[in-house]
Amino acid sequence: MIFLETLNEKEKKRLSKQTIDKMKLLEEYFSIPTFQDFLSEDEKKELKDDYNYFIFEEDEITIVEKDTYTLGQNVYVTFYSENRSYLTGDQIDIITLLHNNLFRFNGTDVNHLKLDNQDRYIDQIVFSFVRILRSGC
Question: Which residue in 27, 109, 116, 132 has a CA-CA distance of 20 to 30 Å to 18?
Fold first, then answer.
């Protein structure tokens, strides 16, 4: 049992570091803030009226490949954007920054949100990735 705990600790550290590294990549490349899971009230106040930021969410764990019992975790990166000149180019940049063999791009969902009682629209792009897990299973 000690071996399993040691193995999982190593994986937990790898996943935590991967999350931090991916968030930093987005922040540094786009020069906009990246938040984990959701925006707190303090973070909303800090943003003021700025709708350019990322939210990085780790979600459910599933079996990716049944033959090898490979586990994966769905990760969603949501890009909120206002007045960006070329969203398609931004999408390509985000995919290029984040995708690799252990963090696989799965698709996007694009929405255009109208702010209440205003003539302003925010673009929302949800990027779906599957992160490959190395577990003791």
Answer: 109
